[in-house]
Design brief:
- There is one protein chain.
- The protein has one domain: Rossmann fold, CATH 3.40.50.
- 37% of the residues lie in helices and 15% in strands.
- It contains eight helices and eight strands.
- Helix 1 packs across helix 8.
- It is globular and about 50 Å long.
């Protein structure tokens, strides 16, 4: 694949299913929420051919803690439009899944960089050693697109920049930054600051932020995904945000 590093614009060529890596050095920015809900939207728009066929959309978790699996296990089967798997750091699992002819899209939840080697030179691989690092390398070897969440809290910005400059750009992986957890009731000031930070660095940015909604923070506990929220104004806004994000990613990449 080739890439214009400043914008994240690429022309990518790959075999098998498209792999979307949801990745950020910092925890708590919404990686699992993004993975589950983007898979839910894609699965709704790309259903299995019949009830007995496997879903063409898969959500995968490589975090040894199994956060995605714990969430998806709580969702009723009729509320899931995608299949899911947790590799728990096992090598080679994602590569096999990518080559499965029944699978068209894989959204992957990744861990934070728990074992980053702070002593590495800037040009060196910063992921360090350990199961989490090896799982990330397996993912990065096959990723077609990286989705990098940040929040309007500036403390999430530097880890995102590290992710892009030290991990994604050296591997020529196309990426898009998504602003998450925007508290719209507080006005636009924090959102504008986050947008300015992304744009000043020339990073490709999703045109719309994901709003901070209680529905999202309670979804795992209640076994829900964005496409199965009970009808309400908040549910409509939640679905709108993720439909727009899914469309933006599909249009760009």
């Amino acid at each position: 694949m080739t890439m214009l590093a400043e914008t994240g614009t690429v022309v990518a060529q790959s075999r098998g299913a498209r792999v979307y890596a949801v990745i950020a050095r910092k925890g708590g920015v919404g990686k699992t929420t993004f993975t589950v809900n983007l898979a839910a939207v894609a699965g709704q728009n790309n259903p299995a051919r019949d009830p007995d066929s496997p879903a063409p959309v898969v959500a995968a978790g490589i975090d040894p803690q199994g956060s995605l699996e714990e969430w998806a296990d709580r969702v009723p089967e009729n509320g899931l439009s995608f299949d899911y798997v947790s590799t728990r750091g096992r090598a080679g699992e994602l590569a096999k899944l990518k080559e499965d002819p029944a699978v068209s899209r894989i959204y992957v939840d990744s861990p934070g960089f728990m074992d980053t080697d702070a002593d590495n030179d800037f040009a060196a691989d910063p992921l360090g050693k350990g199961n989490a690092a090896d799982a990330l390398r397996d993912l990065l070897d096959i990723a077609d697109v990286a989705i990098v969440p940040i929040t309007t809290d500036f403390m999430s910005w530097s880890p995102a920049e590290f992710t892009i400059e030290r991990v994604l750009k050296p591997r020529n992986i196309p990426f898009i930054v998504v602003i998450n957890m925007w508290e719209s009731r507080d006005g636009n000031a924090d959102l504008k600051d986050a947008i300015a930070w992304v744009d000043e660095r020339g990073y490709r940015r999703a045109p719309e932020a994901i709003r901070k909604l209680t529905l999202h923070s309670r979804a795992a506990k209640h076994g829900q995904v964005v496409t199965s929220y009970k009808e309400s104004g908040a549910a409509l806004r939640a679905r709108e945000d993720f439909y727009k994000l899914s469309l933006a990613i599909e249009q760009v990449f």
